[in-house]
Amino acid sequence: MGQFVCLLATLVAAIAFVQRTTGAPAFAIDPGKAVCFSIIQVKTFLSLLSVHPSAFSEQYDNFEKPELLEGDIAGFGKYRTAKEAIEALSSGVDRNGYYSFKWENKILYYTISIRFIDWERERIHRAIEDINNHTTGLRLVERTDATVQRNYVHIQRGGPNTGCWSYVGQIGERQFLNLEVPAYPTAPHCVHHGTIMHELIHAIGFFHEQSRTDRDEYVDINWDNIEKHQQHNFEKYDSSVITAYGQPYDHSSLMHYGMYDFAINRSIWTIRPKPLWEDIEIGKAQNMSEVDINKINLMYPPQ
Ligand SMILES: *[C@@H]1O[C@H](CO)[C@@H](O)[C@H](O)[C@H]1NC(C)=O
Ligand SMILES: *[C@@H]1O[C@H](CO)[C@@H](O)[C@H](O)[C@H]1NC(C)=O
Ligand SMILES: *[C@@H]1O[C@H](CO)[C@@H](O)[C@H](O)[C@H]1NC(C)=O
Ligand SMILES: [Zn+2]
């Protein structure tokens, strides 16, 4: 409002000035006032300039992007970094990730960053509701009491190139789940129904479907098309680390990689569903599969 008044005043002053120099009858405004108004306006403009960009960056949550395991896993159990997690898994020491890190009392508390804008927040709520609608034992509950609800997932609003990622299972105290928001309307981002649920299912306690102990019967891995330093993303885990709760391998799991993930040459597959003569798709799921739901319900049974 103040800016508008200032703008109007400067305009009036400018007209007066022009009319004066063209010899037409002037308004009763002296040029000194016009200069004053202009200075106020320039100041307002500058302050807008300096306030605006920082206000914009503050829309994102600030954090250091962690190194990630399997593309979107920041750690699990007591392994707070991907490096520790990879070392632990490959050395075979203390291989008891996953089902040891369930949420106590079958309640996963969460908080959602205040920086999310309305449509993003709605999608997050819908994804949480979809999980709650289909699970019988587990509850995702908004955290309301910081003194009692110590362990929780904080869903943060990530800026450009921060990716979509989560920890696997409960790691203790506050743990982050990052959703990169679109930097411009058509930009790739993580605020999709399926992607939000995918990251939440990591937080609930699941790795990717293709890291299952029995995966070699259901997918081929094209190691030649995967950079050496990315090959750890295609590890399968020992049955001492993970369990599929007796559920069949599920190509249509929301937790399955797509065919070209981590490819050196993006037109050649890195992971291919078997058997080859069947028309199977992977990495295309937008929703939890029956198996995804069953596994959550077996990890967190109703009673
Ligand atoms: C969850 O269930 C309620 C009640 O049946 C339904 O109205 C709502 O649309 C469901 N939400 C989702 C995301 O499926
Ligand atoms: C990627 O693979 C395709 C299909 O085999 C091939 O035509 C293309 O030359 C490859 N690109 C590079 C950069 O190697
Ligand atoms: C699949 O997604 C729709 C909305 O996108 C939702 O209403 C429905 O409940 C979901 N189904 C399952 C099994 O998650
Ligand atoms: Zn994932």
Automatic annotation (TrEMBL):
The active site is at E199. PROSITE patterns: ASTACIN. The keyword Protease applies. The keyword tRNA processing does not apply. Its cofactor is Zn(2+). The gene is RvY_10346. Binds 1 zinc ion per subunit. Residues 1-23 form the signal peptide. GO terms for molecular function: metalloendopeptidase activity; zinc ion binding. Residues 87-302 form the Peptidase M12A domain. This is Metalloendopeptidase. SUPFAM superfamilies: Metalloproteases ('zincins'), catalytic domain (SSF55486).
